[in-house]
Design brief:
The structure holds two protein chains of two kinds. Chain A has four helices and six strands, in the order βααββααβββ. Chain A is an alpha+beta fold. The chains are: A alpha+beta, B alpha/beta.
Chain lengths: ~120, ~180
């Protein structure tokens, strides 16, 4: 792979604000206020990504009941993203996906928090 | 470059022109002692060696691969990937972290489904490694595994019982490589 190719290796989900969680499409059709909140949340994530991340990231615009899906290129960016959750008052799902460059295999790992920090299991 | 061949460098340091290997196909290493920038994969489950792979310029274009348990420690390093599921490991319920780096490199080479796998500096003096190599040869009967060694008038008959395993010396390999170009 040439160095100039961007490879989005990491996949995370940022949970919706509590009031927007687990809302089906049918409910959202009757609650435009929730849709507005979700859209505002997406814009917030986009803005934070522009400020915080040094490498490429891509938001998945398909609707997800759990939250906003993000693809990230850099492990360092991912680390910062996880570390600074309290600053932006959001939380990640404790599952991080990673794509293997050799096989294209997508594998999920658990993000485990401890009193001293976090690790991958 | 042919798609039928792949070379694996094991744990024993040897003096051989690695460019010859890269002419016949991809090259995989399990050791960080060679100053060669054309390795396709570098395989290890040893922390020190992995860090050397990451820090050495010669490995800048090499895909660094390790076992899944070790990969979790290096999760945030995008240069490192985890090994695919290796049939030999799964079938024999082997603890992958107890495997030697050269064995992992060999299994990865076989996983690429190349017809011929050439072993350089592969430690067969260790009896355990030798037995495992035989078992791997038996497990993958459709892969030709060629043990490449220094020219020596004494023949070795270690692989005579295995139809898909053979021995070649450096000069024979160079002739083979020149025919490929």
């Amino acid at each position: 792979m040439k160095k100039s190719d961007v490879f989005l290796k990491y996949y995370i989900t940022v949970r919706w604000p509590p009031v927007c969680r687990n809302r089906s499409l049918e409910v959202m059709e009757t609650r435009p206020d929730l849709v507005d909140q979700m859209n505002a949340f997406r814009v917030k994530i986009e803005n934070v990504c522009k400020l915080l991340l040094k490498h490429r990231c891509q938001m998945d615009y398909n609707h997800n009941l759990l939250g906003v899906n993000l693809w990230l290129e850099s492990g360092q960016d991912l680390y910062e993203f996880i570390l600074r959750q309290p600053e932006f008052e959001w939380e990640l799902l404790p599952e991080i996906g990673v794509v293997n460059r050799l096989t294209g295999e997508f594998k999920k790992f658990n993000l485990v928090y401890t009193p001293n920090g976090f690790y991958i299991d | 470059m042919s798609n039928n061949n792949i070379s694996v460098f094991g744990s024993v340091n040897i003096e051989f022109d690695l460019d010859v290997c890269s002419r016949v196909g991809d090259v995989i290493t399990s050791t960080d002692t060679y100053d060669f920038s054309k390795f396709k994969y570098a395989v290890s489950n040893n922390d020190f060696r992995l860090q050397r792979f990451m820090n050495e310029k010669s490995f800048a274009d090499t895909k660094i691969v390790t076992t899944t348990p070790t990969f979790k420690k290096y999760f945030f390093f995008p240069e490192i990937d985890f090994l695919p599921d290796l049939a030999y490991i799964s079938a024999n319920s082997i603890d992958i972290d107890s495997c030697s780096d050269q064995l992992l490199a060999l299994l990865l080479a076989i996983w690429t489904e190349k017809k011929h796998v050439f072993l350089f500096g592969y430690d067969i003096e260790d009896l355990t490694e030798r037995e495992i190599l035989w078992e791997v040869g038996k497990f993958y009967p459709h892969t030709n595994i060629v043990y490449v060694r220094k020219p020596n008038i004494n023949k070795i008959s270690l692989f005579d019982s295995y139809p898909n395993m053979s021995v070649m010396d450096y000069n024979e390999f160079k002739v083979f490589a020149n025919e490929k170009v």
